[in-house]
Amino acid sequence: MNYRVIKENDLFFLTDDKGNIPKENDYGLGLYTKDTRFLSKFDIKINGKDPILLSSSADENYEAEILLTNPHMEEDGKLILWRESVEIERKRLIYDGVLYETLKLKSYYPKPVDFEISVHVDADFTDMFIIRGFQYGEIGRRTGEKVTENSFDYFYKGADDVERATRVQWDRDAKSVDKDGSIAFDFHLNHGEVETVTFSVTPEIDGKSGTVIDPEKALQLLKTSYKEWERDTTKVQTDYKPLQRLVDRGIMDLRVLLTDIGHGAFPVAGLPWFGVPFGRDSLIAALQMLAFNPEIAKGTLLTMASQQGTKVDPWRDEQPGKIMHEIRYGELASTNQVPFTPYYGTIDATPLFLVLLSEYTKWTGDLSLVEQLKSNVDAALNWIDEYGDQDGDGFVEYHQESSKGIANQGWKDSGDSIVHRNGDYAETPIALSEVQGYVYQAKIGIAAIFEVQGKVEEANRLRHDAEKLKKLYDEKFWMEDQEFHAIALDKDKKQVGTLTTNPGHVLFAEMLDGPKASKVIEKLVSPSFFSGYGIRTMAEGEAGYNPMSYHDGSIWPHDNSMILLGMSKVNHQSDANTVISGLITAASHFEYDRLPELFCGYGSKKGKAVNYPVACSPQAWAAGTPLVFIQTILGLFPDSLNKVIHLSPQLLEEMNELKVDKIKVGEGHLSVHVRREAEETTVEIKENTTGYEVIQK
User: Fold this and answer.
1) Distance CA 161, CA 144 (A)
2) pTM of the prediction?
3) How far apart are CA 424 and CA 494, in angstroms?
4) Spatial separation of the C-alpha atoms in residues 268 and 283, rounded to whole Å
5) H helices then E strands: how many in the chain?
6) Is the peptide bond before 618 cis (omega within 30 degrees of 0)?
7) Residues 204 and 165 sit within 8 Å (Cβ to Cβ)
8) Whose CB among 300, 328, 421, 571 lies 3.0–4.6 Å from 340's, allowing a Cys bridge?
């Protein structure tokens, strides 16, 4: 369905494109915080009739604007209201835990008109797991309502003994307020006259809530926070407008997805259903943002460290040192009916935590954060060796323990994603290709940090372990007949030989020797993988291939971005640019020039990228993908530990100029301008206050 969603920090509002939450809907529309729906009905009518939609936009992310008008109204031959006489504008925003919506009514009828606007509200306090049909269980009950002349309060006592409430307020005298949640207002307007009514909706949990302020002040404060975000973020200018729009959209989408639960801002996974901390998703999105705002990586690392596993708990798939997969805050989680408090069923978040820390350190030189996270780093490394490698074969593998957990625990976590070439599903324990790359990259990266800290013995041990893994991976995962790596090893240590993108992530780790890296890249940009719009998750022609599937032939922008970083790292810039150009073309087929979470893997011969029906949008690691485009085009990889910056720019064929200013590296900034004239490309370092040497390839 077409929906509109706005978010600020931990509160988001999801409606249909008219701005309504109809009482009965299958999509879970509502106002949510802490995985609970605090508003389950919110619609407007004019003289008891549904308005007609004119336009609907939420391209600003922090503010939505919806334009409606009245249908023609006549009764027994008597005119009630001529069609399109009244313009109804709905403007909404969220600030400091409060939703504000202003209805602005303007008459275009040549004579005075009288009409009624009614608003209908309700709150069911339903847990998100129940709304999405994933779980059912013991729940609480609504304990009452309170009605006044200008407010409605709904109260709920959960099975977790948490008291929840929703307060709906309005700033105009109402004609009537009914206990069923209907509020009616009379309007009398002359031609061109405008009147408004503003609603505020405030969720409350155990007596804690946001504070209602003047909505204009809330809007200004919100705009100020966005301006601060823009000020602190790397600036990009290019003559290739489709890329410019995509980067601008990505930066703004990432801002709306930022949340702070007490340890600094970090990106939640995506809207509408994944607006919570996710280990893998948040870590990868922060990794994508390093060239634009490395402070987000710091907030992400501190948030993940705060929830690091401390014990063996099969119900949560928890083990000491393990980084979480996902945390939820609703009634079912609080009563332990679901294991997401947090849930640890992810095989890749722990090595990715170490990868992000090592890459963050390369960008910033911030060894103080490494010191702050010392115990977390040690615990994560210990988890990799002790718990990650369950059978001591040298590979990190997963196996679900929780009865309500996730079976496949890599990023392709659907039940059909790890499939043999004969169509059989692989059985766990499963060792994924990309996870071995993450482990290698983590150990090499942390070893470099340890060496700078004077921990030479620990650094040497990690490098030895990494080299051993590199050799073992080459022996066990390489498929000579396909000149490609298997996606995984199954419980019997047999190769799961289906051709997928997973081995492409290993390129970024630089774990492959040159010839094999080239073979992997050659396959990934071949027609079986590359659709013209991006690299498919699974190659066309494989037994499990399905262009409409979630993980078996669809195209995920973030998946492509991880491959792009690797291509650039190993100096395959032309291949990387081919993929980037395809994804930019695909983005033009989606609303707001926005790359969605995923889209179908049909080839570009169809003439248009095909939507995946339930993709999140905006989604953090999809929004971060255009930022990776810029880093990849520049071939930019700093190393603050050795005080050098590697740079190897190659412009897309469609562009002739790229200016990237105020890239934060170390304690300074780098600004790079790349220009192509008459087939000659020039690279100009406009600013370098880092004190580091720039090495151009």
Assistant:
1) 16
2) 0.95
3) 13
4) 10
5) 17, 33
6) yes
7) yes
8) 328
